[in-house]
Amino acid sequence: MNNLEQPEGKSLAEILKIRREKLQKIKELNFNPYEYEFLKTHSCNDVIDNFNQLENKVIVKVAGRIMAIRQMGRASFCHIQDENGKVQIYFQENKIGKLEYKLFKLLDIGDIVGITGNVFETRTGEITVVAEELKLLAKNLRPIPIVKEKDGNVFNAFSDKEQRYRQRYLDLIVNPSIKDVFKLRSKIIQWTREFLNTYGFLEVETPILQPIYGGAFAKPFKTFYNVLNRDFYLRIADELYLKRLIIGGFEKVYEISKNFRNEGVDRNHNPEFTSLEFYQTYVDYNYLMDFLEEYFKFVAKKIGKNQFEFGDYNIDFSTPFEKRKMFDLLEEYVGCDIKPFSEEDLRSLCEEKGIEIKSDYNYGKLIGLLFDNFVEHHLIQPTFVIDYPKEISPLAKTKRNGSDKIVERFELYIGGQEFANAFTELNDPIDQRERLEKQSRLRELGDEEAQTLDIDFITAMEYGMPPTGGVGVGIDRVVMLFTNQRSIKDVIFFPQMRT
Predict the structure, then answer these.
(1) Strand partners, 256
(2) Which of 78, 160, 265, 325 is 20 to 30 A from 485 in CA distance terms?
(3) How does pLDDT run across 101-138, given as a tens digit for each residue?
(4) Beta carbons of 83 and 40 less than 8 angstroms apart
């Protein structure tokens, strides 16, 4: 652990020993080092913001973690920190009494205390609570990283990313500003519900444990259901269950859920992630593009601005989102028109461009590789990429009035990465069965991410599924965008880490 509080050069083992000795002394003074309750009347920020109303007039009760401490003779200071801010506390032996002052002398940075007292302003102009009563609420037994501030500058910052992710509780204590990211995350999810509810969508819940997984290209996590004596899977997507609800008669449904994919960990991917999926009957992907654009602009308006810094980019939500065909973008950035290319032509092109490919890659996967390598990073301002190969879109309807190799699908790109995926949903059960059977054959050939054939889903479709549009949105990535975080780990409290 870096930047640990180690007074007088003591080792961590010595500090831990001293803390436990202090704990015993506190008990010997008949103080409970782990209290049951302390009913606050004010937060630290309340004291500072309402100083004029509180000064020497109102007894306040504040609580928080000691983040700095200056122990002197019969008068001492500390700063406590709660969820929203810090305030200084002043202790006088003749004010709180000898016994409680002895207790104060046994306190350390990291201890959680409750303070009752008056509010005043020191000669240096700092708003302070004069302690009339001190309660130790939780004794800290392990030193926390020390961050020092002077004239607005931070020293010895607890900045090791790996350690911050692994010990998020320390990160939140020592770097309280990151709480703002997670508070905004919570608001974005609330606003997402508000937006969809306003349009008459019903929030639903579908199974996390599924006997057959589907709805995306991904390798699942597998578990064993003892009572049923069979394998089950953590869902990779909500899609097939939400469509069952559409078949059952609901016309607008959505779910904000945890999905799980047994894949790598990188800047944009976490095996456990939060997804929004919503489905609306009687609309197609053209309607959904306008609707999704409205959603992003709704969130931007809630935050209160149209332009957002996202890494090196300035993302502008004040203008219409661009719409570009996938194959037009490929021609622009690869340098040739690949629409007439065969699968072998695409293999040769990938090899010529230095892209590593596998022997089982089909036409659609080769197109996807070219797009990922040559196009994606150019799509900075919000852009709908439309009309994808059928091979990589087995749940989308074939493009009307176009090639039968193309489907009505779009993905939304912002800042060079994907944020949403949507289809005019395939509702022909015969076509759907044929496509999923083809996917199953790919699985038999070794493609672990190919989709599975869900017979019950096909049976449900045979009862009749209305024309439907469906969208999947990566909530974690939406939060990354609106909080200017370039790693998904910075918007998930407890991301998965390599051992």
Answers:
(1) 276
(2) 325
(3) 999 999 999 999 999 999 999 999 999 999 999 999 99
(4) no
Inter-residue contact 366 to 347 (CB < 8 Å)? yes
SS3 421: strand
Closest CA to 395 of 451, 342, 332: 451
Residues pairing with 128 in the sheet: 88, 120
Q: How far apart are CA 444 and CA 369, in angstroms?
A: 22
Torsions phi, psi of 361, nearest 5? -70, 125
Based on C-alpha coordinates, what's the Rg of the chain? 29
Residue-wise DSSP of 239-288: HHHHHHHHHHT-SEEEEEEEEE-----BTTB-SEEEEEEEEEET--HHHH
Q: Are strands 406-414 and 417-424 parallel, antiparallel or unpaired?
A: antiparallel
d(CA 303, CA 90): 38
Question: What pLDDT score does 358 carry?
Answer: 86
- Give the CB-side neighbour count of residue 109, counting CA atoms within 13 A: 18
On the 0-12 / 13-18 / 19+ scale of CB atoms within 10 A, 253 is buried
Return the residue matching tokens 């007088």: 8
Q: Facing residues of 150 across strands? A: 153
Q: How many CB atoms sit inside 10 A of residue 392's CB?
A: 17
The whole-model pTM stands at 0.93
Spatial separation of the C-alpha atoms in residues 18 and 27, rounded to whole Å: 14
C-beta neighbour count of 198 within 10 angstroms: 9
231: CB partners within 8 A, 6+ apart: 222, 223, 224, 225
- DSSP summary character for residue 466: -
The answer to whether 468 touches 246, Cβ cutoff 8 Å, is yes
CA atoms of 424 and 284, how far apart (whole Å): 5
Consecutive 10-residue runs of the chain (499 residues): their mean pLDDT?
A: 51 94 98 98 98 94 97 92 97 95 96 97 96 98 80 66 94 94 98 98 97 91 96 96 98 98 91 97 98 98 98 97 97 95 95 90 91 97 96 94 91 98 98 91 77 93 98 98 97 92
C-beta separation of 91 from 115 below 8 A:
no
Q: How far, CA to CA in Å, does 252 sit from each of 244, 275, 281, 458?
A: 12, 17, 7, 21
Domains, the chain, ordered by start: 7-162 (2.40.50.140), 180-321+381-490 (3.30.930.10)
Distance CA 82, CA 482 (A): 25
> Beta-carbon neighbour count of residue 438 at 10 Å?
16
